[in-house]
Design goal:
Blueprint (H helix, E strand, L loop, with lengths): L6 E6 L2 H12 L5 E5 L2 E9 L4 E7 L17 E3 L3 H10 L3 E10 L2 E7 L5 E7 H7 L2
Parallel strand pairs: 1-4, 5-8
Antiparallel strand pairs: 2-3, 3-4, 6-7, 7-8
């Protein structure tokens, strides 16, 4: 039934600021921007080995009011060095959600809350490397 990850959607009250922050983090510009009356209400990046989509949507289009505290599902993006990625995220203004934890041989996770209230997970995952041929 589930065939693969298509788009991870984050919400931000200031899409322009979020787009700048993620541009700095990812080192790439969004490949798609949808403005409404000048300001973008949606931007989208293609990320990583499989070009998965990371979309940032204006918070007013969230299906429900956003909670006061970040939480819910954590989507992990594979990184080669969790400690370094975690420290870089903190240096860019994210706050720790869960410090790096070894989950077992070949599996390390960490997560942060971005400056816009979204939980962003990073993970070293030996199965990702094996499946992706890297």
């Amino acid at each position: 039934m589930l065939r693969g990850l298509t788009t991870v959607s984050f919400f931000a009250d200031d899409v322009t600021a979020a787009a700048r922050w993620y541009t700095e983090l990812l080192g790439i510009e969004p490949y798609f921007t949808r403005p409404v009356e000048g300001a973008p209400v949606y931007v989208e990046f293609r990320v990583g080995d499989h070009q998965h989509e990371l979309g940032i949507i204006d918070g007013r289009f969230a299906p429900r009011p956003r909670p006061e505290e970040a939480g819910g599902a954590v989507i992990y993006w594979h990184v080669d060095d969790v400690e370094a990625a975690f420290e870089r995220l903190l240096s860019l203004g994210a706050t720790a959600y869960e410090k790096p934890v070894e989950r077992g041989p070949g599996f390390v996770t960490a997560s942060v809350v971005d400056p816009f209230g979204n939980v962003l997970g990073v993970m070293y995952n030996q199965h990702y490397l094996r499946v992706s041929g890297h």
